[in-house]
Structure formats: C-alpha cells, structure tokens
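Listing S7. Sequence submitted for prediction.
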Amino acid sequence: MLLKITYYLFAFTYSLSNLAIAVQADAKIGQSKVAACIGCHGLNGNSVVPSFPALAGQDAAYITKQLKDFKGSSRPSAIMAGMVAGISTVDATHIGAYYAQQTRSAINKDKSKAAVLALGKKLYENGNPDTGQAACFTCHGKDGKPLQNFGIPILKNQHPQYIITTLKLFKDKGRTNDRERAMSRIIATMSDEEIEAVAYYSSYLTTE
C-alpha cells in the first residue's frame, strides 16, 4: 500500500512539473528534428537492431527527459552526447511528442523462452518478497503500458536485449538518472536470471 501511495504522489508531482512543457510540444516540429535518429532508432522510431531502443509509442515525457539527461551528462553516453549536442530543451519536447505518436512494431517472440517467461511473470506481477523486490507492474502497468506523461517508460514490445542491458546498467550504477533512484534500488537484489526473465516478460506482454 505504501509503495502504491508513493507511486501516485510521485506521478502527480511529476505530471504538474511537466504540464507546461507538455502543452507546448509539437509533434510536427519534432518530426523535422529526427533525421539523425533514424540510423539507429529506425524509421518512425522502430529500431531493427536489438541493442538500440524502439522509440515509437514511447512516453513523451520519458523521451524528453532522456534527451535532456544525455545533453546534461546525467546519463553519460559517448554516442548520444554527440547526437544531442545541437538539440535544445524545446527541441527535446517536440521530439518526445513526435515519437509518442508513432506506432511501435510488435516484437518477434522467441518461443523457446517459456520457462524464462514464467519466472518473469511471477516477478513482474508479484515482485520477490524474499529480497524485497517490488512488483514491476506497480509503475510499468499490468499490460506494459504505464500512465502517460509521468516519465515512466513503456516496456511492451521494447527489445528485451535492450531492457536487459539497461537493467544491468542500473544495477551496476552505470546509469543513475532514474528519479529518486527508484530503479537502482529495485534492481539491486536481482540476479542475472531474474533480470532476463523480467526483460522478456515485459517485452512480450499482451492484452489478449
């Protein structure tokens, strides 16, 4: 119960702090700013390389924050630092709006991952009481699509390989730009097996 209350307070505060920016975002302007993004993130934000995240359909506030963090060094990346060098804060909001309006392509599911998915489902829906790991759905949604504009990434149909890499970065403190260090704390006790399981399950989520 306390975790849920904390989440909703965070979401409400975050929403208010970004309301002015969200209102000003223009997807058409954003489209004119993403030519350099296509090489890695694909046409309309659907990357074909598993190590590069799909941006199509992603939460606009999340994309905007990541671009600002790359530019401000809160999220170090030699590649992205160069890519965002010419992007302004306003540009970032437009780009976020553009990608949020695109449709994310479905992931090709690996049918050999049945056991991995079973563990992932357990962790995603219930967490791990033995280690204190919170259930992933609390923030990321039962169908992999969290409430919009709260800066929480949409995991459904994201490349599982990218999710695995990201979770390991949080665990190893190679990435620390999560708000209130929420992900860093949650991932701290997870094994590589659990990380893989959560990554595949969250990517393969379906509402069917």
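Caption to Listing S7: primary sequence and predicted structure tokens for the chain studied. The chain has two domains: 27-101, 111-204. The two ends are 28 Å apart (CA to CA).
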